[in-house]
Every structure is written in C-alpha cells, then in structure tokens.
Amino acid sequence: MSVLVVGSVAYDTVKTPAGTRDDALGGSATFFSIAGSYFASVSLVAVVGEDFLDEHVRLLESHSVDTSGLERSSGRSFRWSGVYSTEDINARETLDTQLNVFADFSPSLGADHRTKPYLFLANIEPGLQSNVLEQMATRPELVALDTMNFWIDGSREALTKALQSVDVVFMDEGEARSFSREVNLTAAARNIISMGPKTVVVKRGEHGVLVFRKDMVFAAPAFPLDQVVDPTGAGDSFAGGFIGYLAASRDLTDRGFRRAAILGSAMGSFAVESFSTDRLNGLTPNEIEKRFRALTALTQFDPLAADESLPWRDGVATSV
Amino acid sequence: MSVLVVGSVAYDTVKTPAGTRDDALGGSATFFSIAGSYFASVSLVAVVGEDFLDEHVRLLESHSVDTSGLERSSGRSFRWSGVYSTEDINARETLDTQLNVFADFSPSLGADHRTKPYLFLANIEPGLQSNVLEQMATRPELVALDTMNFWIDGSREALTKALQSVDVVFMDEGEARSFSREVNLTAAARNIISMGPKTVVVKRGEHGVLVFRKDMVFAAPAFPLDQVVDPTGAGDSFAGGFIGYLAASRDLTDRGFRRAAILGSAMGSFAVESFSTDRLNGLTPNEIEKRFRALTALTQFDPLAADESLPWRDGVATSV
Fold it and tell me: Taking CB atoms and an 8 Å limit, are B207 and A207 in contact across chains?
C-alpha cells in the first residue's frame, strides 16, 4: 500500500560532537519518505524554495518517492540550524530557524493523493493537519500524526481537534506529559487514547519508544550505537519505518504494531549514524533485516513456559 | 545458593508526589535482602544504632534473612532524608545525610559468611568493598558491586582496584559515563568491561537497564506503572532480584543474565509501588511470576523466521 506524507523539506546546518554539516538535506517529510520508501511507495507533499537543488529531487526519486506534490515557491527553502550537546547527544539548541517558503505552506492535495490509503501528517500546524485529512476523498486505512511542543503550547485546541480524527499519534515523552497534563507516562498515554487515537507512540530518544494501545503496552528499545553522528531526523525516520511497515504488511493488529515499532527503531538508528540522510540513502534489505535481528537479540529472553516456575527459595512458594 | 550482602541498613525520611514517610526502613542491604529473599537465602552484613527497632530485625528474619551479621553499635542508625520532584520522579534532592554509626562501618565477616558462594557489595566505600572480598575464604562463584558518583569522584583509584576483582558492576548511566569518561553508553560499558568485570549493568531508572557482556547487549525495560509512589530502593531491589535469580538458577550464561535482568526489573517495579519495603514485604510467587509475564508481553514481538523476509516495496529487494 502507498503512503502519503505531508510535512517539511528543509536544509539543516548542524553541529554535533562528531562534526558539522552545512545546508544538509533535512525536514520531516524527507526523513520519513526515505525511511518509509524501503517498505512502501511514498508520495510527498511539501514546499521548497528556488534554492532547492535538483540533485535532492533526484535523490528522493531514486527511492521511488513521488515528488509531484513537492511545490516550488519563490523564495528560499525552510532552513534550520542547531547544535547538539557534547554531554547529552539528545539535548539540542536551536541557533536559527528560517521558515521562508514554509511559513505560507498550505498543502493542496492532487487527485492522486486524495485516495492514498496511509497518511502521515508530519509536524506542521494542527489546523493544516486537519485540513489535509479533510481533503482526502476517502478516509485512509490509517492516519498518523506527529506534533511538537510549539503547537501543544500555542495551538492546543486545534491540536486536540486534529488528534480526534487520527489513528496514531507520535509524541516525545515531554510532549505527551505536557499535552495530557499527566506526569506519569502511562497516565499520559491513556489520557491521549481517551481523546480518540487508538495508538499512542511515546518517543524517548536513546531510550526507545513505548507504544500504547487499548490492551497493549510495548517497549521497543533504541539500538545501542557505538557512535551517534547526528540525531536530526531520528523521530521522522522512526515514523517512516513504522508507518512504512504497517502499509506494507497491512497488519494493523497488536502484532503488526509491535513489529512496526522495531522497524521504526531500526530506521531511526540508521538515520543517526550519519549526517543528513546519508546512511538512510544506501541501505540494503539485508542491512535492515540484520538490524531487525539485532534488535531481536537485544530484547529477547526465555519467557516462562506455561507450566514453569521460577526457582524460589525453599519455603517461599509454600509459606505464602 | 545463598547470597551475602554487605551494605547499609537505614532509616529514610522521604517526600514524593504521592506523600511523605518519616523514618521508614531503608538502606541498600535492606532492599537487596528482601527482594533477593524470594529466590535465595540472604545473609546481611551491616551496622545499625541503638535506635534500630526490633520489629525491623523481625521483618528481615520473616524473609529468612540471616541477621547474624547485623552489628548494633552505640549511637544512631544511618539516616537519610530527601525529596523527589513532582515533574520528574527520577530527580531527587538530598535534604540531609546523617551517617551516624555507618561512618565507622568496618565489616568483619563471620566464619559462616566467608564461604558464601554469591556476594553483593552494595554501595559502600570501595576500599571496604575490596576488604570484604579479601576476607572471603574462597572466591565466590559470583561477586557483584554497586557504587555511586561520590566514590567515582573521590575514590577513583580504590574503586578501579575493587572493580578489577568483581564479576558484575552496577552503575547508573551517569556514573558509567563519569567513571569511564565516555559519553556514549556502549563505549562506557566496553571501557568498564576492559577493566575486568565480565558484566556491566547500566541502570537507567524509568528507562530500564542495559546489560553488557562480552558478546551480548540486553535491554530490559522498566515496567510502566500507573503510579510511582517512592523510587527509593529501586536500584537495590533490582540488584536483589538480579543476583537472587542468578544464585537460585546458577545459570551464569547469557540466558541467565537476560532473565536475571527481567526479574531485577520486576522486583524494582514492586519496590517503587509503595514507601519503604512495604510492597516488597508481602509478595507472593504468583505476583512475581505475573509481573515476569507482563514484562514478557511488554517486550516480545514476532522475530523474523530464518527464511522470512520483511515486506519490501517492489523493486527494493532487487534493485540493491
């Protein structure tokens, strides 16, 4: 099944403990598209400026990403610049944000895009997220939404409305707490589920994700890497692997969501191994399967058999 | 197999978002002993003051903990007081530390204790940890050590020496980074393993633990709870379940260490459900097995079968 993503395509200038990179291809829709492209045909809706390089269009197209929805406006592309901390690779400081053509982004879907069965609303203004969903000719099989603190703080009402119509919500743990006004993460996720979405994915950076559904909580770890080169795009690459797998397998059961989280974790771990989309670009199916198996080895243990007991101290089992 | 623990027995006054408790039974050896007692016979070596209540000796003995090594000195017991943050339950501020009789703690093992096959050196001065190990008549099957930033900053040399003689090291992630001087957690653990210990357990609070061994990394999640009442003792209860299981199963393979981490996580999750050892005290084997199974459900997913492929987008598998 094919996936439609609406979000940002940008140029990022980042400084991390591993080095610096100027004007690197970035943006939520970019990372999502390339990560998801291994599993599903992805159509991208975004806006770039006159400065956007043809080679980056060709890069997306080399992953069979449909770029017919990549609007080119007069002006410059969205540009972000930030520094990651040496002590804590998850801590970043934004140095500069230039929205440029993204400031007036008002996605208008083509006829082909309105019937896509999987939809990912990347982190954009929640009113636009609702508007995109309303443009769909038929309700997709699955609609997922990502957001950020800026909208939670400034557009809570619009975000709440958008949330009510989607199936899957991605938030990081701070966002989930802030949005639900619950300190406890389980309580936060349950609160968000009570608003409508059947699945809440709480992202915890290097600590992995928790996936909450009605009768399920699943913890997927992040893959421990020897070196994180650039965390930019990890969350969107996670979402790309997650939604891409669901679209490819069409397994929307708990089983499917568990595997989707592991594949999301795999794709997120590749994304941070290099600057920009460098590592994501040239992956092979074999590399992705190998990381899936490595995540299996990381988490699996011998469960208790149905008739098995733990080795209790003498007296414990009988005394209580 | 039986386990010897050398550490602190204390009275804690804590304030958490769930309430306050004055002069509650605490201390590393206390939490470790009670958590471990479900799996193994535990002997405790510690010191308390004249204020230590008989009912707390009886509580330990109700778990078959051998208290013959619980020395009673003139003076008051170790007392600690702290406040946990409302925003972040893992952040705590120490209000007061009164070492009292613990300041002169110099453990002297009885003949019975010197032959114990499993030894847990809880967080005490590293020179004392080495001294305890030297007192053992025979090298135990397994020696584990816990420590804290205070010793890493102030007694690095003594701690390094102690580490070289043990099998398992417990540190939280900040301690592992600070001790190894490596920001990356994998690099930090590999650095510590290169000093001697075959197993490094990196504790990450509500994010679970990572267990590093020569050819293994295992991620055990924390059990997501609806409410954390009091985090005090979580790490020592984790260690009690972990070492207790290893002593009971005598499975010192990767398989055993994986299960040990899950049982540690189970016992840690019980510890934080109430103040002091309240929840740990009255557990049943059934409750512990139920949590082990819940941790199984939290982490398990369908691995890829040997001959199974992921569902790739058409063209991906053949184009690369």
Answer: yes
Model confidence at A186, pLDDT cuts 50, 70, 90, reads: very high
Quote the CA–CA distance of A140 and A114 in Å, as a whole number: 9
Q: What is the CA radius of gyration of chain B?
A: 20
Q: In whole angstroms, what is the distance from residue B43 CA to residue B299 CA?
A: 33
Sign of the C-alpha dihedral, residues A190, A194, A195, A201?
positive
Closest residue in chain A to residue B187, using alpha carbons only? A226
**ipTM of the complex in this document:** 0.93
Kindly indicate whether the domain formed by B3-298 is annotated with CATH number 3.40.1190.20: yes
Cα pseudo-dihedral A106, A111, A113, A117, rounded to 10: 130
Structure token pair of residue A242? 């997650």
Task: Give residues with Cβ within 8 angstroms of A289, minimum separation 6.
Answer: B304, B309, B310
Q: Which CATH class is domain A3-300?
A: alpha beta
Task: Say how far apart CA A51 and CA B260 lie, in whole Å.
Answer: 56
Tell me the pLDDT tens digit for each residue of B4-27.
999 999 999 999 999 999 999 999
User: pLDDT band for position B318 (50/70/90)?
Assistant: low
Residue B299 distance to chain A (closest CA, Å): 5
Alpha helical stretches, state H, chain B? 28-36, 54-62, 126-135, 149-154, 156-164, 173-180, 185-193, 234-249, 254-271, 278-281, 285-299, 316-319
Residues 6+ apart with CB under 8 A from A100: A49, A75, A76, A77, A78, A79
Asked if B61 contacts B73 with a C-beta cutoff of 8 angstroms, the reply is no
H or E segment and range at residue B200: strand B199-203
Residue in A301, A304, A309, A320 to test binding to B, most B beta-carbons within 10 Å: A301
Query: What is the rounded distance in angstroms from the CA atom of residue A46 to the CA atom of residue A4?
Result: 11
pLDDT of residue A163: 97
Residues of chain B with C-beta less than 8 angstroms from the C-beta of A227: 184, 187
Residue with tokens 């990560």: A35
- What does the alpha-carbon distance between residue A32 and residue B55 come to, in Å, rounded to a whole number? 60
Strand partners, B170: B146, B201
How far apart, in whole angstroms, are the C-alpha atoms of residue B245 and residue B239? 10
Model pLDDT for residues B128-163, shown as the tens digit of each residue: 999 999 999 999 999 999 999 999 999 999 999 999
Tokens read off for B194: 């290169």
